[in-house]
């Protein structure tokens, strides 16, 4: 199914009276007419452009007019039928039908639930799973036997209208919802009218159009003036009231049409007790169930209402109406970025080599490497962004003092003294953690002495000069080095007693030297390292970051000291990452490594930092002056942990004995994968692509969601294109990603303008996977240069779950048939050493038991959720809320008891119950029993796994002696070491999984804080003693 077909697979939805000007159709006799078909267009939304569903009245109006839906039968066949709500609003009918007209209907009072998406067995069946998008399906659960009427609409807009209207009618019967200007004014109408009154300075009942436009723009920043002016012209024309002034009723109508976001309105109605606003208990339910917030109190909800509700009446009564709800969802309090990560939240007491370090290459460069201008402000910018490693290439200056050159341009030099003074001022403004200055020396010994004097005098106490601790094995931690500046550079050997001496040189900087015409020395014969002169004064400034040439991994393992570090060119590091990634990961557990860009990048383009982060390389030097994907990844990645410039590497990369394959194409040993369920709902105030003025005002955007991480995680999905959507497109598309190493994954949103010649960039936002907040969130979009775009956002829903069973997650849905799944077991690998293999062989059965225990619970959870009509991304509170809703709308009033006083809370029926509800209770009991088995067996399985792990680790210290005794060399030796690390990792991860088993069957079970009104009187919630 192509992109266009996926969005318009249906064709054209049949809607009568498309102007939707009247809140209800003019007829009252219940007659139904099939509207004429419109011409098929390449559009992703079949809702008429001039019809906006922004109220319950509009939803019911559409239902009364009727439209064509596809009715799905149990045999997976679909039939087009015309569905309409009777004029008395008591029944939904459809035609044509072979049934008697009285049977081809569903009475509203018999409706138990309305589900959105493929959430019934019929819609989840394999024959239909790929025929239509999830957001275009909905089901009506009705009758005492909980039958389902499964329907597919032309678009998500139509689904939302029917679902909204049906849910309202189920709650309130035929009592018509209030519309502006009818009956008693609503909370919102009263507030908008009061705003108008304040603007009516002359108290004439009318205000100038220009003032009305500015008023709406002030209430909704980001909305275009032209859009507001056009709306007033339309309404004045429709009401035959042209002129330069508008009355209150027209102002209220314009505001409601312009400022009501349907997707947020639908969300409010879903949780609202009265379908107009959220009360305190409604808001509490929304925060707990959808947003995943814990410990929410009514006091906290009142604070939110007080902060965001614009109407005085709403604040006094504790009501959050649509405008306040929209403001809250747009606020920083509801951002997609977890606020815990806005401050330092990671363990900063680990060795320095255990962190990724934000690093800059040519920080003072403003353009490309060849003709780029240098400016001291580049350092201020980099340090302000939390950069903790800056490169300084020192050259002989024309006035006897060293300078920093970055290109062949004569105007590209910056005095070294000025750079050091600036670093002294700004080194710790954005981060208190250590700054590393990487000195690449190309100047003469006399000027080196001046540079050393400048560093000592200017930086003073900040300069770290203490010698390394010879008995330690690792570098000090960032916490120990707070407020200190480290010098990374060459050091004279202990045997040198002169004021200067020769040291080996690095390749970095020689390409620029050749362009400057200052390189006259040739490489020594035989390809050895160049030698340069180094002054003792500069050498003595180097302590914990002594630069040494890299020979090979075996030499480093045997002879490199922890305070020595190597720099690798992008090409060399890329070769190691591809050919021997495990050795590079192991090397980086103890030593710092710095990766610098290839000298061939004369345009100052950037390498992909993920290529080296996945191998544990701490310092990947980036050209901060060059925006684009690579800098987005770098900036987004270091935004976590308080943007302090240090990010703790995954544990699997830090532990002395662990297996990690940086180029893994599948899940990691013993590490359960996670699924990211991402629904891209809409966009707000999207700007035109930069430089695309010739295209006029038309923007046809789509959203790409990208995952960057280890190869097994890298993926990209895109939404359909929203054609003719203006600045606020609706996407309503669900995407799914499998994440095997969450600690190293980054999610990037990219908004592009669909164009025949080439898609143009509109905006982006990059966020580490670990910083995502679940629920309904707004994504604050940024420009290509990483600058915030005022009021430009994406509205999304985020849910994260464990991957179910042993199967691989798919892009849409997880409802594969369980019987066809083959459970995958993680096993140990043979090392080729008999004594060691016998120890690990004892863990085979416990490993299988651990897998079975966990996956039995996961499968039981998913089965229970599916029977409740929910996706695997749902939580237990949503499940309990769903069951309570069924009971609330049941004529037979079955009774179900959930007793939270017991350790394993039973859910029991009292009296006869429908078949579906009985299946739900059975699935719940299965979930509880599998959870109980897991909890009660976890300690025993954990003991066996840890025992095998400890027995294996007993061999670790003697491993090299045993390898020599067994005669293992070359590839066999490497294979044995990898297998040993694999086994230890698997046992550790599985053991920790058992050790961290929750004390309750499911930590998401509703607590007594769950608002009681959410449960009907026919269901009993017994609180714990």
TrEMBL record:
Keywords, alphabetical: Cytoplasm, Hydrolase, Lipid degradation, Lipid metabolism, Phosphoprotein, Transducer
Transmembrane segments: none
CDD domains: C2_PLC_like, EFh_PRIP, PH_PLC_eta
Name of the featured protein: Phosphoinositide phospholipase C
PROSITE patterns, sorted: C2, PH_DOMAIN, PIPLC_X_DOMAIN, PIPLC_Y_DOMAIN
Entry annotated with the keyword Protein biosynthesis: no
Gene3D superfamilies for this protein: C2 domain, EF-hand, Phosphatidylinositol (PI) phosphodiesterase, Pleckstrin-homology domain (PH domain)/Phosphotyrosine-binding domain (PTB)
Gene name of this polypeptide: LOC100228479
Domain C2, chain residue ranges per copy: 654-783
Gene Ontology cellular component terms for the protein in this record: cytoplasm
Renumbered residue ranges of the record's region Disordered: 24-49
Protein's organism: Taeniopygia guttata
Enzyme Commission number(s) from the entry: 3.1.4.11
Subcellular location per the Swiss-Prot or TrEMBL entry: Cytoplasm
Domain PI-PLC Y-box: 538-654
Gene Ontology terms: biological process: gamma-aminobutyric acid signaling pathway; lipid catabolic process; phosphatidylinositol metabolic process; phosphatidylinositol-mediated signaling; regulation of synaptic transmission, GABAergic; release of sequestered calcium ion into cytosol
Pfam families, A to Z: C2, EF-hand_like, PH_12, PI-PLC-X, PI-PLC-Y
Highest taxon listed in the record's lineage: Eukaryota
């Amino acid at each position: 199914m192509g992109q266009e077909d996926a969005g318009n697979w249906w064709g054209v939805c049949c809607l009568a009276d498309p102007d939707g000007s009247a809140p209800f159709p003019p007829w009252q006799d219940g007659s139904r007419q099939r509207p004429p078909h419109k011409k098929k267009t390449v559009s992703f939304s079949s809702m008429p452009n001039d019809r906006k569903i922004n109220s319950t009245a509009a939803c019911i109006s559409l239902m009364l007019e009727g439209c064509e839906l596809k009715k799905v039968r149990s045999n997976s066949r679909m039939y087009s039928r015309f569905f309409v709500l009777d004029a008395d609003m008591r029944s939904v009918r459809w035609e044509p039908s072979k049934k008697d007209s009285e049977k081809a209907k569903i009475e509203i009072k018999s409706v138990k639930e309305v589900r959105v998406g493929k959430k019934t067995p019929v819609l989840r069946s394999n024959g239909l799973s790929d025929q239509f998008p999830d957001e275009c399906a909905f089901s009506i659960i009705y009758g005492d036997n909980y039958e389902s009427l499964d329907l597919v609409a032309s678009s998500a807009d139509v689904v939302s209208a029917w679902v909204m209207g049906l849910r309202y009618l189920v709650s309130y019967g035929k009592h018509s919802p209030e519309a502006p200007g009818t009956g008693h004014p609503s909370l919102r109408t009263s507030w908008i009218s009061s705003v108008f009154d304040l603007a009516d300075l002359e108290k004439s009942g009318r205000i100038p159009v220009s003032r009305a436009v500015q008023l709406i723009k002030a209430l909704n920043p980001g909305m275009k003036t032209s859009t507001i002016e056009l709306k007033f012209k339309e309404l004045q024309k429709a009401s035959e009231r042209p002129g330069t002034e508008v009355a209150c009723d027209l102002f209220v109508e314009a505001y409601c049409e312009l400022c009501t976001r349907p997707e947020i309105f639908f969300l409010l109605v879903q949780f609202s007790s009265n379908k107009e606003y959220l009360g305190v208990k409604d808001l509490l339910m929304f925060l707990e169930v959808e947003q995943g917030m814990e410990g929410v109190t009514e006091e906290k909800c009142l604070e939110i209402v007080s902060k965001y509700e614009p109407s005085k009446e709403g604040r006094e009564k504790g009501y959050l109406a649509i405008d306040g709800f929209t403001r809250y969802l747009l606020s920083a309090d509801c951002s997609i970025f977890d606020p815990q990560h806005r401050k330092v939240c990671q363990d900063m007491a680990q060795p320095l080599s255990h962190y990724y370090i934000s690093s800059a290459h040519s920080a003072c460069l403003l353009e490309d490497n060849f003709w780029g201008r240098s400016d001291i402000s580049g350092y201020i910018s980099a340090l302000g962004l939390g950069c903790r490693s800056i490169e300084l290439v020192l050259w002989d200056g024309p006035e006897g003092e060293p300078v920093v050159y970055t290109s062949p341009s004569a105007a590209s030099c910056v005095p070294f003294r000025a750079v050091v003074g600036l670093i002294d001022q700004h080194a710790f403004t954005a981060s208190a953690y250590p700054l590393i200055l990487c000195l690449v020396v190309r100047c003469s010994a006399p000027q080196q002495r001046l540079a050393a004097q400048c560093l000592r005098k200017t930086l003073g106490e900040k300069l770290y000069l203490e010698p390394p601790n010879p008995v330690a094995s690792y570098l000090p931690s960032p916490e120990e080095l707070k407020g200190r500046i480290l010098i990374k550079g060459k050091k004279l050997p202990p045997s040198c007693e002169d004021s200067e001496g020769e040291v080996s040189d690095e390749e970095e900087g020689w390409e620029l030297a050749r362009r400057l015409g200052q390189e006259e020395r040739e490489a020594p014969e035989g390809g050895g390292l160049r030698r340069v002169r180094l002054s003792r004064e500069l050498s003595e400034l180097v302590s914990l970051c002594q630069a040494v040439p890299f020979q090979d991994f075996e030499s480093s393992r045997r002879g490199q000291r922890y305070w020595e570090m190597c720099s690798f060119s992008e090409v060399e590091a890329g070769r190691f990452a591809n050919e021997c990634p495990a050795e590079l990961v192991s090397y980086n557990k103890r030593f710092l490594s710095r990766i610098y860009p290839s000298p061939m990048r004369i345009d100052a383009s950037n390498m992909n930092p993920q290529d080296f982060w996945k191998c544990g390389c701490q310092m990947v030097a980036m050209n901060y002056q060059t925006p684009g994907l690579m800098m987005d990844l770098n900036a987004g990645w270091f935004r976590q942990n308080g943007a302090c410039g240090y990010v703790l590497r995954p544990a699997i990369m830090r532990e002395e004995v662990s297996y990690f394959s940086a180029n893994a194409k599948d899940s990691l040993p013993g590490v359960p994968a996670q699924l990211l369920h991402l629904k891209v709902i809409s966009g707000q105030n999207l700007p035109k692509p930069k430089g695309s003025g010739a295209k006029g005002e038309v923007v046809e955007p789509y959203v790409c969601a990208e995952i960057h991480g280890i190869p097994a995680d890298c993926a990209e999905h895109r939404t359909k294109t929203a054609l003719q959507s203006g600045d606020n497109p609706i996407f309503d598309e669900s995407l799914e990603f499998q994440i095997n190493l969450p600690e190293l994954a980054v999610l990037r949103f990219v908004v592009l303008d669909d164009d025949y010649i080439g898609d143009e960039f509109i905006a982006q936002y990059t966020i580490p996977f670990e910083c995502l907040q679940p629920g309904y969130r707004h994504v604050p979009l940024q420009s290509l240069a990483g600058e915030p775009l005022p009021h430009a956002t994406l509205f999304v829903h985020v849910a994260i779950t464990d991957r179910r069973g042993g199967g691989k997650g798919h892009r849409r849905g997880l409802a594969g048939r369980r019987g066809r799944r083959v459970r995958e077991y993680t096993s140990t690998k043979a090392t080729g050493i008999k004594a060691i293999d016998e120890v690990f062989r004892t863990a085979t059965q416990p490993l299988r038991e651990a897998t079975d225990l966990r996956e039995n619970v996961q499968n039981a959870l998913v089965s229970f959720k599916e029977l409740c009509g929910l996706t695997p991304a749902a939580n237990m509170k949503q499940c309990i809320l769903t069951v309570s809703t069924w009971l609330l709308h049941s004529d037979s009033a079955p009774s179900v008891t959930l007793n939270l006083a017991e350790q394993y809370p039973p859910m029991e029926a009292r009296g006869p119950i429908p078949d579906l509800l009985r299946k739900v209770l059975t699935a719940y009991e299965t979930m509880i029993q599998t959870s109980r088995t897991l909890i009660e067996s976890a300690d025993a399985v954990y003991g066996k796994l840890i025992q095998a792990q400890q027995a294996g680790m007993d061999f670790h210290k003697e491993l090299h002696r045993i390898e020599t005794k067994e005669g293992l060399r070359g590839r066999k030796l490497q294979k044995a070491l990898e297998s040993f690390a694999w086994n230890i990792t698997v046992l550790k991860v599985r053991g920790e999984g058992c050790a961290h088993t929750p004390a309750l069957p499911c930590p998401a079970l509703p607590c007594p804080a769950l608002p009681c009104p959410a449960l009907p009187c026919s269901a009993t919630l017994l609180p714990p003693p």
